[in-house]
Design goal:
This protein is an alpha/beta fold. The protein folds into 3 domains: 4-83, Beta Barrel (OB fold (Dihydrolipoamide Acetyltransferase, E2P)), CATH 2.40.50; 87-266, P-loop containing nucleotide triphosphate hydrolases (Rossmann fold), CATH 3.40.50; 279-348, Probable gtpase engc, domain 3 (Ribonucleotide Reductase Protein R1, domain 1), CATH 1.10.40. Helices cover 30% and strands 21% of the residues. It has 10 helices and 13 strands. It has helices at residues 49-54, 120-133, 151-161, 200-214, 220-223, 279-285, 287-290, 310-317, 322-348, 352-368; strands at 22-30, 33-38, 41-47, 66-70, 76-81, 87-92, 97-103, 107-113, 136-142, 166-168, 189-194, 254-257, 263-266. It has a 6-stranded mixed sheet with strand order 10-9-8-11-13-12, sandwiched between helices. The longest helix has 27 residues, at 322-348. The protein is globular and about 70 Å long.
Length: 373
């Protein structure tokens, strides 16, 4: 019998005894198939068509979600996604819809590497979405072992991050890894988010190895792998020398539990990170900009050529960084645009493209699987 509380499942969400649907946490997503950790161990599940595709109103689960599922001889049937305490998402630039990344994290590690791939603009995006998720953001600067002076990059990251902690470290040498411990208490769920090649999987491998090494020699905890954690390392890949970009070695989002009780979510690298309804996150990520908003002479000031504009005055005096203002304008426009899309779709229900996609999914379910939906 697996203790779901050790996988972060909230006590208050456990269904009463005798309930046909059992609690589970989503530990990986493979397109229409979900890997679940249940009280009966690891199983796979699929969405029950009626509840998710016809009745509507239920949020499609992602890695880290708490769900209820009906046991079955084959794949279990997921019937409900339980309330989330945090949720990281971005816009799917191809379809213009929200794309879920991870749920129910306590900490979001925004990972960048100390090489040519370091980008303050990209970091601003990760911080905005991380704040918006409801989890605590922490910036990780990896590959501290690379030759050269990284002082300027670290200083830039700290300036961009504001009140968010910035930790520079090396998974290869172990330097700085101890500074992660305050954020990785037993029972904590932490998500690693960043571009391909920044070293997310290498970091997780290092934490993995350190966690196994901490077990007493010869103990069952050391010699046997806990549920959800195979002993073999996660795949890692090389990066291109000219620009520091990496290849996709993590192909799906996966939640892992270490012997220490820490829960880690690894995610594929994200080359694009568009805003999705992230106005709250903007306020947290850009307090240096928003302190001037609302101080203009005119309430409808567009911060262009209007007299008495507090933003233009701050730019002219050097109090406000022009680069930060330009970033804020871009991210604010993206967020407001996606907020409008979200509001329209909530009023109208599923848009025609999404409904057509749901119907195609249903046909695929019925064609490939004999379980009743």
């Amino acid at each position: 019998m697996t203790d779901l509380l050790a996988y972060g499942f909230p006590q208050e969400f456990l269904p009463p005894e005798g309930s046909p649907a059992l609690p589970a946490r989503v530990t990986a997503v493979f397109k229409e198939r979900f890997q679940l950790m249940t009280q009966e161990g690891e199983h796979y599940g699929r969405l029950k068509t009626k509840e998710y595709l016809y009745d509507g109103g239920r949020k499609f689960p992602t890695t880290g979600d708490y769900v209820l599922a009906l046991p079955a001889a084959g794949d279990w049937q997921i019937v409900e996604t339980l309330p989330r305490r945090s949720f990281f998402s971005r816009i799917d630039s191809w379809h213009g819809t929200e794309q879920a990344v991870a749920a129910n994290m306590d900490v979001v590690f925004a990972v960048q590497s100390l090489n040519e791939n370091f980008s303050p603009k990209r970091l601003e995006r990760y911080l905005t979405l991380s704040w918006n998720s409801g989890a605590r953001p922490v910036v990780l600067l990896t590959k501290l072992d690379l030759p050269g002076d990284h002082g300027e990059q670290i200083a830039t990251a700290r300036k961009t991050a504001g009140k968010v902690p910035v930790v520079a470290l090396s998974a290869k040498t172990g330097e700085g890894m101890d500074r992660l411990l305050p954020y990785l208490a037993p029972g904590t769920t932490a998500a690693f988010l960043g571009s391909s090649g920044v070293g997310k999987s290498s970091l997780i491998n290092r934490l993995w190895e350190d966690s196994f090494s901490a077990a007493q020699p010869g103990s069952a905890e050391e010699t046997a792998s806990p549920p959800g954690i195979p002993r073999e390392r996660m795949a890692t890949g090389s990066v291109r020398e000219k620009d520091g970009m990496g290849r996709h070695t993590t192909t799906h989002r996966q939640l892992l539990r270490l012997p220490s009780g820490v829960l880690l979510i690894d995610t594929p690298g994200m080359r694009e990170l568009g805003m999705w309804d992230s106005l709250d996150g903007l306020s947290e990520a850009f307090p240096d900009v928003e302190q001037y908003l609302g101080q203009c002479r005119f309430s409808d000031c567009r911060h262009e050529n209007e007299p008495g504009c507090a933003v233009r005055a701050a730019l002219a005096s050097g109090e406000l960084d022009p680069g930060r203002w330009e970033s804020y304008k871009v991210l604010n426009w993206e967020s407001r645009h996606s907020h409008h899309l979200s509001t329209v779709r909530m009023k109208q229900g599923q848009p025609s493209k999404a409904l057509a996609k749901a119907r195609r999914q249903e046909k695929k379910y019925r064609k490939n699987f004999s379980e009743p939906y």
